[in-house]
C-alpha cells in the first residue's frame, strides 16, 4: 500500500492496528514504524516534544522505505536484545529488508535515524520518501541539496539533514527516491534532527551501526536466569530504550491511542511516572541488572529531594512539570483523540511514595544507595507520615478516595527499606508501618476476609494483589489468600485479569484486560506455591503482544488486539520481573 497524497502535497500513511507497529528508541526519543516501512510517529528532540512525523494521530509527515511492487507481504524482527528493527518484505519478484534504528548511545540534543536497505533475492526496488513536518504537522522544512548528495533544511525550531538521497526528487517539501539494488548490494539513508546546528559533516553509516550495536550489547544482560531469556531481553531493551540520560523512563512513546474506541479514555503518556519508574527499577533489580535500577533511583531521588512532600505523580523526562491537557485539532488515531499533556498534575498518588521506598530498598539490597539517596528515602517517609490518611487518586488515577492499595504499598515500602536503615530510623518507621496497617485493616477488610478497594467500596481490585507480593502482609496471611481467591473468581477470564468490575455485565464490556494485573496474579500464584497456574498466567499474558513482541497497557481479549498507548513500559517491566521470579523458588 502506498501513502496517500491528497491536495496540498501532504503525505500520510493510513493507520494500522497497533499490533503491526514496532518501536525504535535510543533513550531520548522513540520512532513508531509500521508494516510499510513508514515512520508514523517521532517526537524530537525528546519524548515529550512536538512530533516531526505524526500521521499516527492524523497529522502530517512521513519517512518511509516501501517496496515499489504493491504485491508484498510484511514481516520483521528485532536483533536480539536490541531495538534494532529489521523490516522484511516478500514481493512477487524478490525479497528486500531494511534494518532500522535510532543511533545509540542516544544524545538528548540530536536524533539520528538510520535505514540500511539490502536485497536478499530477486529484484525488489523500494521507494524512499521523506516528508518532515515538525510541530505535529504545523511547520514545514524547506530542504535544499548542498550539491554533495546531502539535503538539509530548517523548520519548527529544528535542523534536519539527510544523506543517502542524493538522487531524490524534491516536490513541495517531499523528497522521493527509488532505490534499485541487486542481491548482496546495500544502500544507507541517515536522517539527523536537532534543535541545535548540526555537526559540520554527516556521520558515516558504518560507524553509526558499529557504535549502536556495541551500545546495545553492553547494555542489555543475557537474562539466562529467567524462564524466558529472549523475551526478557526484549523487555529490558524496551525499558532501556525508553530511559534517557536523566534516568527518566517515558511511560509510553505515544499519545492519544484509545484504551477503548470513542470512550474518551486516551491520554498522553510521553512522561515519566514515579510509580512506573519504581516498577521498572524493581524489575531490573530482581535479576541484578543494576544499570536501569540506578537510573530509576537517580531520577526518583532527585525528584524527592527537589519536591519533598509535594512530589508529583509524573514529570517530563527533563524533570519538569507535565503540561496541562489540550488538543491539537487533529483527527487522532481512529477511536481516540489528539490529546496532549496530562491531567496528572492535579493529582496526589500516595502509592508512589511506597513504590519509591520499595525501589530504594531494592537498590540497598544491591548496595547501590549513597547518602544523597538516603536523604531522598527520608523525604519519602516524611511524605507518607504527613499524608497517608489523606484521599488520593490511587494507582488507577481515579477520583480521590482512601484507597486500600495505596496505604498497603506504603506499609510494604516502609517495611522493605527498614531492613537496610539505621536502628534509629527503624525504631520510627516500623511503628508508622504498623499504624497504617492496623488502620487499613480496621477500615478496609471485607466481611469475607479479603481486602476491599476502600472503606466505602467493597469491590475487589487486582491491584490489591501487589501489597502481599511486596511484603506489606505475608503471602500466606488470610487476607492475602482471600484476596487472591476473589481476584480469580471475579476478575480472571480466559487467563487474563481485569482491574475491577465496573458493573454487573461481562468484564470486557467496560475495558480490556490489564496485562500488568495478569503478571501480578502470576507472581501471586508463584508465591502461594501454585506453580502450574503461575506459568499458565505468565505464558498467556506474555503472548498478548503484536508480532514485534511489544505490549500495550490493555489487551482486547475478544478481538485479540492491543489497546492504549504504545508500548507501555511498565508492562514490559512486570513481564521481566515475573520471568525472573518464576525461575526461582518462592520466598518463604
Structural class: alpha+beta
Number of strands: 25
Secondary structure tally, helices: 13
**Measured on Cα atoms, how large is the radius of gyration?**
24 Å
Percentage of helical residues? Answer: 25-40%
The overall average pLDDT, rounded, is: 95
Gross morphology: globular
What features would you describe in this structure?
This protein has 588 residues and is α+β, with helices and mostly antiparallel strands. The protein is built from 13 helices and 25 strands. The protein has helices at residues 205-219, 229-241, 274-286, 290-307, 351-365, 371-387, 404-418, 423-444, 466-470, 478-491, 515-527, 531-542, 569-581; strands spanning 22-25, 30-33, 38-43, 51-53, 62-67, 72-78, 85-91, 94-102, 110-122, 126-131, 144-145, 150-155, 158-163, 169-171, 174-179, 186-194, 272-273, 314-315, 326-327, 339-340, 492-493, 496-497, 513-514, 554-556, 561-563. The strands form 6 sheets. Strands 1, 2, 3, 4, 5, 10, 14 and 15 form an 8-stranded antiparallel beta sheet that branches. Strand 11 (144-145) and strand 12 form a beta hairpin. Helix 3 (274-286) packs antiparallel against helix 4, helix 3 packs parallel to helix 5 and helix 5 (351-365) packs antiparallel against helix 6. The protein is globular and about 75 Å long. The model has no long low-confidence stretch (mean pLDDT 95).
Amino acid at each position: 500500500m502506498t501513502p496517500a497524497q491528497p491536495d496540498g502535497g501532504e503525505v500520510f500513511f493510513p493507520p494500522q492496528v497497533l499490533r503491526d507497529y514496532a518501536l525504535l528508541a535510543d533513550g531520548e526519543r522513540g520512532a513508531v514504524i509500521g508494516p510499510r516501512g513508514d515512520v508514523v510517529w517521532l517526537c524530537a528532540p525528546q519524548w515529550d516534544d512536538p512530533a516531526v512525523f505524526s500521521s499516527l494521530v492524523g497529522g502530517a509527515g512521513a519517512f518511509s522505505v516501501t517496496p515499489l511492487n504493491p504485491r508484498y507481504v510484511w514481516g520483521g524482527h528485532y536483533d536480539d536484545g536490541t531495538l534494532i528493527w529489521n523490516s522484511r518484505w516478500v514481493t512477487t519478484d524478490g525479497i528486500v529488508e531494511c534494518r532500522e534504528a535510532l543511533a545509540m548511545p542516544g544524545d538528548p540534543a540530536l536524533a539520528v535515524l538510520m535505514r540500511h536497505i539490502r536485497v536478499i533475492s530477486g529484484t525488489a526496488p523500494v521507494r524512499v520518501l521523506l516528508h518532515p513536518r515538525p510541530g505535529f504537522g504545523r511547520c514545514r522544512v524547506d530542504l535544499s541539496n548542498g550539491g554533495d548528495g546531502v539535503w538539509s533544511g530548517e523548520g519548527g525550531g529544528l535542523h534536519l539533514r539527510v544523506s543517502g538521497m542524493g538522487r531524490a526528487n524534491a516536490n513541495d517539501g517531499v523528497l522521493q527516491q527509488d532505490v534499485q539494488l541487486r542481491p548482496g548490494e546495500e544502500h544507507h539513508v541517515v536522517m539527523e534532527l536537532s534543535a541545535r546546528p548540526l555537526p559540520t559533516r554527516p556521520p558515516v553509516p558504518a560507524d553509526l551501526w558499529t557504535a549502536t550495536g556495541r551500545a546495545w550489547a553492553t547494555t542489555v544482560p543475557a537474562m539466562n536466569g529467567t524462564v524466558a531469556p529472549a523475551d526478557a531481553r526484549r523487555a529490558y531493551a524496551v525499558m532501556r530504550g525508553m530511559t534517557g540520560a536523566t534516568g527518566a523512563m517515558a511511560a509510553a512513546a505515544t499519545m492519544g491511542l484509545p484504551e477503548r474506541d470513542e470512550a474518551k479514555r486516551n491520554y498522553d503518556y510521553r512522561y515519566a511516572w514515579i510509580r512506573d519508574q519504581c516498577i521498572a527499577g524493581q524489575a531490573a533489580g530482581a535479576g541484578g541488572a543494576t544499570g536501569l535500577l540506578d537510573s530509576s533511583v537517580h531520577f526518583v531521588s532527585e525528584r524527592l529531594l527537589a519536591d519533598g512532600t509535594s512530589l508529583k505523580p509524573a514529570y517530563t523526562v527533563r524533570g519538569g512539570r507535565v503540561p496541562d491537557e489540550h488538543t491539537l485539532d487533529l483527527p487522532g488515531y481512529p477511536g481516540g483523540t489528539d490529546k496532549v499533556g496530562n491531567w496528572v498534575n492535579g493529582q496526589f498518588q500516595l502509592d508512589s511514595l511506597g513504590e519509591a521506598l520499595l525501589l530504594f530498598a531494592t537498590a540497598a539490597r544491591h548496595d547501590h544507595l549513597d547518602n544523597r539517596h538516603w536523604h531522598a528515602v527520608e523525604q519519602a517517609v516524611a511524605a507518607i507520615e504527613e499524608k497517608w490518611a489523606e484521599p488520593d487518586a490511587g494507582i488507577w488515577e481515579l477520583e480521590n478516595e482512601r484507597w486500600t492499595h495505596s496505604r498497603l504499598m506504603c506499609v510494604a515500602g516502609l517495611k522493605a527499606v527498614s531492613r537496610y536503615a539505621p536502628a534509629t530510623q527503624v525504631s520510627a518507621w516500623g511503628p508508622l508501618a504498623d499504624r497504617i496497617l492496623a488502620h487499613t485493616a480496621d477500615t478496609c477488610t471485607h466481611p469475607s476476609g479479603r481486602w476491599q478497594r476502600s472503606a466505602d467500596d467493597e469491590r475487589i481490585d487486582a491491584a490489591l494483589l501487589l501489597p502481599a507480593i511486596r511484603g506489606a502482609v505475608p503471602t500466606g496471611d488470610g487476607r492475602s489468600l482471600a484476596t487472591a481467591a476473589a481476584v480469580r473468581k471475579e476478575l480472571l477470564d480466559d487467563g487474563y485479569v481485569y482491574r475491577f468490575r465496573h458493573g454487573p455485565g461481562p468484564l470486557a464490556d467496560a475495558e480490556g484486560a490489564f496485562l500488568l494485573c495478569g503478571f501480578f496474579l502470576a507472581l501471586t500464584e508463584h508465591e502461594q506455591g501454585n506453580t502450574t497456574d503461575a506459568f499458565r498466567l505468565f505464558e498467556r499474558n506474555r503472548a498478548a503482544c503484536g508480532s514485534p513482541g511489544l505490549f500495550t497497557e490493555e489487551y482486547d481479549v475478544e478481538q485479540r488486539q492491543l489497546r492504549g498507548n504504545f508500548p507501555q513500559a511498565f508492562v514490559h517491566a512486570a513481564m521481566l520481573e515475573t520471568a525472573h521470579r518464576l525461575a526461582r523458588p518462592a520466598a518463604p
